[in-house]
Amino acid sequence: MVKIPMKILLVDDEKDFVEMLSLRLGETGEKVTPAYNGKECIDILEKNPVDVVILDIKMPGMDGIEVLKEIKKRFPLVEVIMLTGHGTAETAVQGMKLGAFDYLLKPADFDDLRLKAETAWKRKEEHEDRIRKAEAKLLMRKSGGIA
Ligand SMILES: [Mg+2]
Q: How far is the CA of 59 from the centre of ligand 1 (A)?
């Protein structure tokens, strides 16, 4: 079977970290787009379909929470996983209350990250599937069919 790649947007101001993680995720067949700040993240989301955003909290300019709010406002179906250092774990929990799927403590374990990203992706797929079914049902009702 052909594996459908997850479309991951990786946002972190630490270039080495982004490059290393992009490489590893690429090796496991995922489609990774790197971004190094919040503005870049939003620009990419405007132009490309993305399943899961892995989002650093501490960044210069727009911080992760601001970026998360913008994502949830404009692209509500995109799932977000927050990346946090030990000092900002509480902020990560705040992020979850604002709609982030989960968070990861840095330095993130690769398998853990992959698993969380896959679970987030699955949730997005299921959510979109329910929306499609609801739309189909609505159409049936409108056309006078039984639904
Ligand atoms: Mg950072």
A: 4
Burial of 100 (0-12, 13-18, 19+ CB in 10 A): buried
Question: Exposed (0-12), middle (13-18) or buried (19+): which is 68, by Cβ within 10 Å?
Answer: buried
User: 7-121: CATH homologous superfamily?
Assistant: Response regulator (3.40.50.2300)
Residue 37 Cα to ligand 1 middle (Å)? 9
Model confidence pLDDT, tens digit, residues 13-36? 999 999 999 999 999 999 999 999
Q: Which residues of 105-142 are buried (b: 16+ CB within 10 A; e: fewer)?
A: eeebeeeebbebbeebbeebeeeeeeeeeeeeeeeeee
Q: What is the pTM of this model?
A: 0.93
